[in-house]
Amino acid sequence: MAAPKPPAFDTLSLHAGQHPDPLTGSRATPIYQTTSYVFQDADHAAALFNLERAGHIYTRISNPTIAVLEERLAALENGVGAVCTASGMAALHLAIATLLNAGDHIVASASLYGGSINLLTHTLPRFGITTTFVKPRDHDGIRAAVRPNTKLVIGETIGNPGMEVLDIPTVAQSAHDAKIRANVASVKRRWVSLLIAAACPLARAAGPVSPRASGRQR
Ligand SMILES: Cc1ncc(COP(=O)(O)O)c(C=O)c1O
């Protein structure tokens, strides 16, 4: 018998990351309006806090509803994981704060959402992170702007508001050649999918990202 086909995009967009609730049979993902979770006993709690087993501790860290969204986005993007935030600017700030330190440098598309330009121009320099802006289709300019302390190349798939389409493979290749990460922010309304396009291990890259707790016990 032929092996079952792996689920494709349409199926993943409906079902990835979710297992119907075995108690109720609910097909849709419930919205878990909880901050806290019950621990079976002290050992169970300790194992969760020590990250020895996956599970939920506190909703700011992880929540079963959000975990489904995160796993679904990761599946659709063919990624190893995803982190959802409550806004696009929170996502961008979180990604940068996770990957970079004071003294690091960013090469960014000059065709970005205004809030992102403000973050890179005004806020991050106060924390020692500086940015050089380059036109998104100036690939030589992007390569020339890379410095020894450059850790990140940032662009938007379709620039807001100029609608410039980013040549992701070329920009990512420039970042790979320079051994840095390329973050491509694809903002759809209130969520941001950050594709870490560069491969690891990279000499100048940040450390590995811990796997997120998921609704499934591993
Ligand atoms: C390209 C882009 N990045 C970031 C944002 C910021 O998203 P939020 O308003 O959810 O913080 C937006 C919002 O429109 C956007 O279009």
Q: Can you summarize this structure?
A:
With 218 residues, the protein is α/β, with parallel strands linked by helices. The protein contains seven helices and five strands; from the N terminus they run H-H-H-H-E-H-E-H-E-H-E-E. The chain has helices spanning 9-15, 42-49, 64-76, 88-99, 114-123, 139-145, 168-177; strands at 105-109, 130-134, 150-156, 181-188, 191-196.
Structural description of this entry:
Helix 1 (9-15) runs antiparallel to helix 3. Mean pLDDT is 82; it is low at 187-218. The chain has a domain at 88-214: Type I PLP-dependent aspartate aminotransferase-like (Major domain) (Aspartate Aminotransferase, domain 2). It has helices at 9-15, 42-49, 64-76, 88-99, 114-123, 139-145, 168-177, and strands spanning 105-109, 130-134, 150-156, 181-188, 191-196. Helices cover 31% and strands 14% of the residues. The relative contact order is 0.14. The structure holds pyridoxal-5'-phosphate. Pyridoxal-5'-phosphate (PLP) binds next to helix 4, helix 5 and strand 4.
